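From the pipeline queue, job 12 of 40. The input is one protein chain; the requested action is below.

Action: predict structure.
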Amino acid sequence: MITISVAAACLGIYLVSQIILIERRLADIPGPFLAKFTDYWKVYHLLKGDYGEALYWWHQRHGPLIRTGPRHISVGDPNEVPKVYQIKPLLHKGNMYKGVIGWFKGKNVAGLEGIVDEVEHANVKRVIAPAFSWKSVLNYESHINHSAAELVQTLENRGVVDINEWLSYWAIDSMINIAFSSDLGFMRHGMDIGGTLNTVRAVTSIWMYVFAFPTVFMWFAWAASFFVGPSGKLVSMCLERVNSRMQNREKQDKATIKEEDLLDVYIKARHEHPNLISHERVIGMTFTTLLAGGTLRRSIWHGQSALRRLQEELDNAILADTLSYPPTLKDLSKLPYLDAVIKEGLRYAMLLQLNMDRVVPKGGMKICGRHIPAGTSIGCQSRVIHLDKGVYGKDAENFRPERWLEASEEQRKLMERCAIWFGSGKHTCIGQHFARAKTMKALSMMVMKLEISDSDETAKMVSGAISSTRGPTHPYYMKIKKRDPVQTKA
């Protein structure tokens, strides 16, 4: 009994000494007082929905390094982004990612975003990454065209619409189309089918609590997966399509499987790498693909001047006979102002509310001229980085696509290198090319075919935290009518 007591006392002394040692090493890094002892400050603001704003305030007043927890540091210098998310040496994902591991009856079904083991992540990514390259995205252009054209046709006769609502319908319909070669009909019916968008919001809302207590939620989710099954229209459709398609594919020789959509890609990967891609993982990857599509709502409805200039660029391309309807991704990629609008929209969205944590490797490392001890979690946050005036200009808090055209080549490369709109480094979002292609298509096709203006010129787009992401939080009404076609030379 005495031996156990002595061992417990020694363990307690060791843990306390480690806490004191870490505290001394990070003591001179500014931050909220509570952050020295607990993650409560960060958890409080995450759940309140103003973490990005609160963290931005601290960085503006106290510099590039802010302590947000006993072993957590927010890095606010955009020039340090490449170092935080470098590949050699690789900084491993922080504990926050444990919470997004998906479980199905006790089995790990995480997509790439939830795989914390670097070897496993590299192996899975190597198998499926080719299907997400820009070249491969071009193979899905007909699916992307279909959804964008349906959005245009649906809106042209509706008069005044809540643009945020309809972009949500388009975002998830288009991603389902890419995944399954069909959709649920959000745009056709003009409504949230089966509460699907509510399911997406609910899942991403849970992530706020998950990121606050990642290890606890990981074990809770694992245990709950034995008793609670997935539910909801989106989930049931995903399960039905995956199971049905896989049963049919089992009857085929794997060499004859034709890749027509993303589900086919996942199933082919399952056939070729059964030890790496399980049946459950196919389900998990498919569902997280749909979740990502459902939360993507990039738009430029921040100023009519940007819309007018974009319309002028598209019209000039039509008159020059270098663009037709529907426009091809190849032709759209040649339009500089459209490219600037997309980049500015991504920057200004400041989508992710959290720091993308990485763990400082053995031996520690220098960040912002300060030695950070091994085991410390460091990460950048999109609001802090994307509103940096030193990189993006004195008007960084404004939506202004022209900054990308006015910048020198060196400055433009710096802005792109510092951007974390799709993450950074090895773990950059694999679906970034799909997101860019979808947005380019929908935006250009809407501007080519529709007259779009504010319903209320005094109204403003209101954005804020929507669970773990940031986006429009209130309706934004716009007047839409069919546009007269541009008259080309005979």
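Job complete. The first strand starts at residue 65 and ends at 69.
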